[in-house]
Amino acid sequence: MATDTVTSAPILGSATRSKILKNFIDGEWVESVSGETFENQNPADTRDLVGIFQKSGKQDIDAAIEAAKRAFAKWRLVPAPRRAEIVYRAAEMLIERKEEYARDMTREMGKILKETRGDVQEAIDTAYYMAGEGRRMFGPTTPSELPNKFAMAIRQPLGVCAMITPWNFPMAIPSWKLLPAIVCGNTCVIKPAQDTPLSTFNLVRTLTDAGVPRGVLNIVSGFGSRLGAPLMEHPDVRAISLTGSTDVGRIVGTTAAKSFKHCSLELGGKNPMIVLDDANLELALDGGLWGGFGTTGQRCTATSRIIVQKGVYGEFAHRYVERAKTLKIGNGLDESVDMGPAINEAQLKTDLNYVEIGRSEGAKLLCGGHRLEQGEFKYGWFMEPTVFGDVDPKMRIAQEEIFGPVVSIIPCDNLEHAIQIANDIEYGLSSALYTKDVNRAFKAMRDLHAGITYINAPTIGAEVHLPFGGVKATGNGHREGGIGAIDFYTEWKSVYVDYSDKLQKAQIDRGD
Ligand code: UN1
After folding, report:
1. Pocket of ligand 1 (CB under 6 A)
2. Which of 451, 359, 448, 442 is nearest to 408 (CA)?
3. Which of ligand 1's atoms lies nearest the C-alpha of 463?
4. Where would I find the H helices in 197-334?
5. What confidence tens digit (pLDDT) does each residue in 458-500 have?
């Protein structure tokens, strides 16, 4: 169970707390073997040091996997309802800690408090859902083809699971992976994004305080370039779950395949929102702004393409831009702010570079496009909400995932044309349609080639009990959330019990 070392370890978040966070391996806080560390700054104000984390290497990964392997021998035998009770307790504790963790997250990641509260809430929701799964995890019991024989299939844990998580949902996404994994009886080694390790520590600390035993959850912080290979190639790791870019997904997928590991990839998106002539325009504007600029456009589900039917195109684009200009940019800790900074300098540069690409491709820059660096913006990675109009669907700004506050508005003739534009893309995560016509809504629900379709709501806002994931280059067919996660973190075992007291041969002893 939780050791004193774990519960009394330094916690971040206030002036009196230690800024140094060690790796969490086998229930102990330990320095990296090399002793190297890295600093993590607040993207809204880089003078604010969020924490100093371990810059780990292969030896740290190996130690964590070893601990997870040892812990698996016992954890897999703890009844699933008992495992789930711990997760339920963690949910209750997260509710108490929600405000503190949301503030930590806004400091390390930049998104506004409303959203970081939502991120912690998503972990709470996942915890409640997965806690319930502990008493379900159903498998089929089915008749045997032979007399006096019993047949069923049971779910079994995989063993040590590796998680590689992104910075945009620093607690929600780790919770999507860790919670189903441990309820199913697996043990875990997680490498959080280097920009947002603190929220993963907060989640794992809470689970440990709730009673997850030592070695079941291990955190190794550092850089993907150094930690990816030892994590993916280790023979004792049986599953890898990555949320990240399509390029990294390709590497993880091919590496995992070599040793036949289970591999769940949640990758890029370029999510279309279609607005038809009959749509409630006010609603579509609200949705398009929230979907496009929420989380500073840094969601894999972000509404990055708005495809508008010609009859309302002019009015929609005009009003969208007028409203985008009024969004308040700033430090997410200020409750009046609508949009925070980019996560880091490299992401900001990418965003600004896409503004240049859009311009050079001949798209019309309707607003934004500049970095903000005067006054309060001086020490952060801020940019204006940016909207391009008259975008051709083939342009790079309409095809490539930007992961920033840059929205392309694309004109279309009708629903069929809109769907064709929406689908003519490498990705297929989320999609949305605004219309009042139920017939057209159902056609879109069927024909939009994506893992998620919203009707009269933007492309963001997935709920944790439904499958989450996408088609084409967005993933490899697995789903997170809900029962999809239970499917990923278990393996089927078919069990036959023959109580006939004689040899019965399947397919042969048919009695005919
Ligand atoms: C992501 O962008 O990586 O649907 C996840 C949403 C969130 C999760 C997004 N619940 O927008």
Report:
1. 122, 168-169, 243, 299-301, 460-462
2. 359
3. 10
4. 197-210, 224-233, 246-258, 281-293, 310-326
5. 999 999 999 999 999 999 999 999 999 999 999 999 999 999 9
d(CA 511, CA 318): 77
Regarding the domain delimited by 271-455, which CATH topology (the fold level of the hierarchy) does it fall under? Aldehyde Dehydrogenase; Chain A, domain 2 (3.40.309)
**pTM of the prediction?**
0.95
Report CA(443)–ligand 1 centroid distance (Å): 25
Architecture (CATH level 2) of domain 6-137+151-245+485-493: 3-Layer(aba) Sandwich (3.40)
Write the single-letter amino acid at 115: E
Which residue is it, tokens 């590991």?
Answer: 261
| Centroid of ligand 1 to alpha carbon of 8 (angstroms) | 33
- Active-site residue set: 266, 300
* Amino acid identity, position 182: I
Asked whether the beta carbons of 20 and 52 are under 8 A apart, the reply is yes
Q: Tell which one of 176, 196, 299, 343 to mutate to probe ligand 1, the residue whose CB is within 8 A of the most ligand atoms.
A: 299
**Under 8 Å CB-to-CB from 155, ≥6 apart: which residues?**
137, 139, 184, 486, 490, 491, 492, 493
pLDDT exceeds cutoff 50 at 332 = yes
Distance 173 CA to ligand 1 centre (A): 8
Q: What is the CA radius of gyration of the chain?
A: 24
